[in-house]
Amino acid sequence: MASGRLSGRHAHSVHGATNFASSFVGRKPAPLDVPTPTLSSGKKIFFVRHGEGEHNVASASGNQAAYLIADAQLSSKGVEQSMKLMQHPAFCSASGHMCVPELLVVSPLRRTMLTAILGFNSDTPIILRPDMQENGLTPADCAQPDLGIEMLRKQGRTSLCDMYESLPEDWHIKGSLWKRSVSQRFATILEWLETRPEQSIVVVGHHDFFRCTLNESFENAEVRQYTLDGGILRDMHGKDVMSKTRISLAGLLMSGIRSPTSSGSRSPMNSGSLSLSHSVERNLNNMSATGVRSSKSMVRVMTTPGRLDMLSKTSAP
């Protein structure tokens, strides 16, 4: 993705991005018996909120334009917070040994990427997931790829630049269904994490994304450890934090969230839902009829349930 072409694509990409968000809404769950995990089993998942951002500083001071800052960057305090992340008690075991993450999974906004770069070893692989972007639609919560690539170049992360530029061209255009798709997006992410070979994974994300999915309010640079096993995410006390949005290993939402493809208040679980492939076909036909150019990479993502390979690229330093 060449940064010079981004602004010209924005206008005609909105419909395609809306279809991307809608692909997470109303999925029909796959029946699966999930064994009850124990705290001694499963993967260690460390959820980390980014360090303090410029918009956080502006908002705290009462600046009404705080969330008009495009793809808000870390503040100087946020930089310091990020550099101290590995000192957080969550990464120290009871025996005093440090738990070194094997993988960083990161939202591709500037503040989350810089938090990951500054906070963890430079040789730790990074995977960017656009479906982890913040829920908001304000400029501060929306990526600006030209600013993102500039920041990565300043950090000297060449391979991360290449990965960032290879993301689907419309990844940063959220569309009107973005907020309501948060639970579905999170379920898909958990399913994907379950398939990864790594046993210790850091997920660097955003306040509202975590609040809506983990039911917790994270402070800047806060770290919380969870255990993921058999499709169940548990906190350090063994509590199933996804009790209201049970997922299967197929990564499909199994709660009764209203679907735009169903009528009235019926759940997508029992009526009115289109299969993912049918939904994609319908969306593509609509896009063709309205003259909107579709992204082939986005189509491949949506037509492969449970996989987001085209949205997830691994980066070595």
UniProtKB/TrEMBL annotation:
It comes from the Eukaryota. Pfam families: His_Phos_1. GO terms for cellular component: cytoplasm. GO terms for molecular function: phosphatase activity. Coiled coil: none annotated. InterPro entries: His_Pase_superF_clade-1, His_PPase_superfam, PGM_Phosphatase. This is Uncharacterized protein. It comes from Haptolina brevifila.
